[in-house]
Amino acid sequence: MVFTWKSSIPMLLWFVVLAILSWQNVLSNGFYLALFIAVGLFLLIPVLVESGLAKGVAPWVRKAGIFVLFSAAFKLVEMTTFGFNWKWLSWFYDFGLIVAGIWLLIAAIIGFFKWK
Q: Are 47 and 7 in contact (CB under 8 A)?
């Protein structure tokens, strides 16, 4: 399969939406930011596979995206419970983003050593 700019249009549109949402300060909320990061990770998988990266990278990026979605769910629960002070939900949110970053680092290492 040949990698062209047309196959990366969804990812390019993601960057345009990222710029617009950052300009409007929508991503200042952790829930929307985590949701947007997860969508970006899922859009990144076809671009990485078509660019010649090893197929072993895609499962790690997918796991990171799913873990960021779970982090977004914890942030949503924290946002919707108005009167309660549940800091442990915020800790789960931060822990989820850190673990997703570690899994993305593993994906980058695998992709570096198994480039086609």
A: yes
